[in-house]
């Protein structure tokens, strides 16, 4: 009985470790081809080809079009891109660098606001929900 218990416990621990490994954001991008995160106001979309976009979920807000790269050995992503504004006034050329720290997390079903995003089916039914998501830096490049 003890052997059976230890075997089941080992399998449970192994399954949990494998699941946690799959929920690393960089691995999720590699496996799925893209990763979408939402903060409730905007979405942040990382594509496997290194392109990045962020737009508001609604009709007005900040936009970012650019590229991303992951810092080695860390859960830090560096985005460089052109910042703009939808249905508002903003500078014509606003190039910035943004540093995001994104922890492991899990995928969840999209909510109503994400499902009805004016930009189309960005989330494909699922949104990555990290345990923590921190914008550590935003720096002008021009």
How would you characterize the overall build of this protein?
- The protein is 23% helix and 45% strand.
- The protein has 3 helices and 9 strands.
- The strands form 2 sheets. A 7-stranded antiparallel β-sheet has the order 1-2-3-4-5-6-9. The protein has a two-stranded antiparallel sheet with strand order 7-8.
- A hairpin with a 3-residue loop joins β2 (42-47) and β3 (51-56).
- It starts with a helix and ends with a strand.
Oligomer: single chain
How does the helix and strand content classify structurally? alpha+beta
Q: Please state how the strands of the largest beta sheet are arranged side by side.
A: 1-2-3-4-5-6-9
- N→C terminal distance: 68 Å
The major beta sheet can be summarized as: 7 strands, antiparallel
Question: What's the SSE pattern?
Answer: HHEEEEEEEHEE
- Pick out the low-confidence regions: 17-21
């Amino acid at each position: 009985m003890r052997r059976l218990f230890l075997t089941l416990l080992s399998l449970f621990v192994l399954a949990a470790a494998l699941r946690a490994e799959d929920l690393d954001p960089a691995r999720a991008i590699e496996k799925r081809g893209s990763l979408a995160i939402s903060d409730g106001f905007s979405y942040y979309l990382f594509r496997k080809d290194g392109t990045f976009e962020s737009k508001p979920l609604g009709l007005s807000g900040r936009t970012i079009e650019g590229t991303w790269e992951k810092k080695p050995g860390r859960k830090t992503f560096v985005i460089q891109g052109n910042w703009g504004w939808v249905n508002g006034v903003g500078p014509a050329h606003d190039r910035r660098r943004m540093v995001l720290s994104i922890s492991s997390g899990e995928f969840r079903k999209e909510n109503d606001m994400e499902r009805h995003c004016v930009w189309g089916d960005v989330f494909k039914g699922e949104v990555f929900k990290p345990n923590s998501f921190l914008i550590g830096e935003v720096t002008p490049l021009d």
